[in-house]
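User: structure tokens for Hydroxyacid dehydrogenase, please.
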Amino acid sequence: MKLVIAEPLHIPQKRLEELLRRTVGDRMEVISYGTPPQSGEELAGRCREADAVIFLDLPFSRQVLRQCPRLKLLCTLITGVDRIDLPACREQGIAVCNTPGYASNAVAEMTFALLLAVTRKVVACDRASRTQQGQRGLMGVELEGKTFGVAGAGSIGLRVARIAQAFGCRVLCYNRTPKPETGFPFVDLDTLLRQSDILSLHLPLTPQTQQLLNRQRLAVMKPSAILINTARGGLVDSAALAQQLQEGRLAGAGLDVLDLEPPFPPEHPLLQAPNVVLAPHIGFATRDALERRIRQLEENLSGWLGEGVPRYPV
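Assistant: Done. Predicted tokens:
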């Protein structure tokens, strides 16, 4: 059998070798690629003879899967599976597993790192301190008493809601399926947009949520509102958001994700917009989250090789 590591996993090489030695041993031939594939055709070529594939975030479309007749396991090292054609996997008998919740705490903390950087002008404060500019123009706002909207009540969204509550915020949630058992009030999306002083996105990217925050929906938000996105860049119309910020129709934004992956081109509209704090899609990246990811990968491989079922099936 062949195990293909289809792209760099950002796991220290020694740790990865030890993990594979414990779980796979000599039961599978391991083929590893040091760069991401640049096309679906290249991805299919890498996986054509694979029985199992480990990867971070690659587009396993129906067309790619059709070219992989031996494939029995797709193991992604992230939580989201929106780039995998799950119906096609079921039709071909391919098991899919992920690493659920490995970075929930990391992303929730990053949400507030970005939020506080915006509300307390942390980047501008640092720049002013280094250039002897003083305190002018650095007045911030507090979180206590603000209405905090959480769009997406999964594990990350609910962690964010609890932290926001601890800051003294009034929390409102939106989810496709409301979860009253959480103790948080759930409202429709329009109400969330209109009432939130802070809106934090924690939704998956699907055809239904693509550019969920389009020009029309952004326009109903308060001019004093702040948008935080640590989920998927495609949830937001970047050009419309940049225009809202340029025209003062939104107070600020903290974004760990844009509509493309870093490095960002210098002409991207949000790089020119005011009151934006950006991060290069790094909300998940803590040592603690990496350890959880490694452990869950080992559990998935051991379960699949031992009992035929990964530990964290999708």
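User: Anything notable?

Assistant: The chain has two domains: 2-102+287-307, 104-278.
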